[in-house]
Amino acid sequence: xxxxxxxxxxxxxxxxxxxxxxxxxxxxxxxVADLGQGENFGEIEKRAKLAGASKIYxxxxxxxxxxxxxxxxxxxxxxxxxxxxxATALGRPLIAKHLVAIAHKEKAQYVAHGCTGKGxxxxxxxxxxxxxxxxxxxxxxxxxWEFKSREEELEYAKMYSIxxxxxxxxxxxxxxxxxxxxxEAGVLENLEQEPPEDAYLxxxxxxHISTYPKYIEIDFDKGIPKKIDGKAYKLExxxxxxxxxxxxxxxxxxxxxxxxxxxxxxxxxxxxPAATILYxxxxxxxxxxxxxxxxxxxxxxxxxxxxxxxxxxxxxxxREALDGFIEPTQRYVSGKIKLRLFKGSCTPVARKSxxxxxxxxxxxxxxxxxxxxxLAEGFIKIWGLPYxx
Length: 389
Ligand code: ARG
Prior knowledge:
Strand order of the largest sheet: 3-2-1-4-5
CATH architecture of the largest domain: Alpha-Beta Complex
Bound molecules: arginine
Number of strands: 14
Low-confidence stretches: none
């Protein structure tokens, strides 16, 4: 019998995919990646078996996700189209990597995923599979099956007693991991309408929360966050903690009309409290310790880095080369940033670093001033010289 390893989430699409693949005479092995989506994996396992899987792998990949994907993106300050901190996009190459590894272990010639033919995730997963093992054959049931609508798919699920109640309640398509939540479809497709509160999963409404701000302090060591309010945390706990605090203050929501890889514009709503806080703090610290030319050049790299992540080009020479550039820029990114969280905003308000390039005796207008203003005259003449006729 032909064997296929399917990237399985426990949702409607991948559950129907199990059944559909069986109908095409495959033995179906499910692979569930735990990236911190906070699911009940016992329940997911049951569902996979009910749908017809012969075997299921559930792997906790949180640590690898944080160390190898999230931290590099944070060091890069990568952000797509000004608003998206890339939670979903960063997870896909990691899922694909393990999908390939399990296929090898199981000696399967086929791998499958539940992504539709309209999104970015099919691209990211398949590009990665192709890079890691171009001989594996890829099946995307959702691109092939004949359901004309969600309703038809639900009918199919009912016919095979695939449990669907969870999916029927939530009128959105949601992808979640420890770095953030991506929410689309349903009423969000109406661009003229503000996203309703029920679209958000992990943040409180900024208008309904405390009238007092909350201050927090984050410590970094070489670009990596280490402490909250002076207390050391492991990265996973640190991110969870910031998701919780940020969420309470409505921090990290964004609403973006984004350019997808397949040429479609789509609206996606994001929640990323921890990522938003950490990006703000990290960039603030960089502004203190990086010299001007490096800081400016790094912004260009950040744009490119975000594109590569969004495009599914994680396992590429350019991404690796950019990491090679970014790593040494983090040598002095150590110190503390204090931030104010207030009604959805997250604002750095104070900063301190042993590697600060700020020299008060140069910038002050007070009497400690050591800046020799006479030097400015010659500097300006030479600076503007190229433009004089
Ligand atoms: N638009 C985001 C991206 O391309 C998220 C995709 C998944 N979104 C979802 N709601 N299922 O990375």
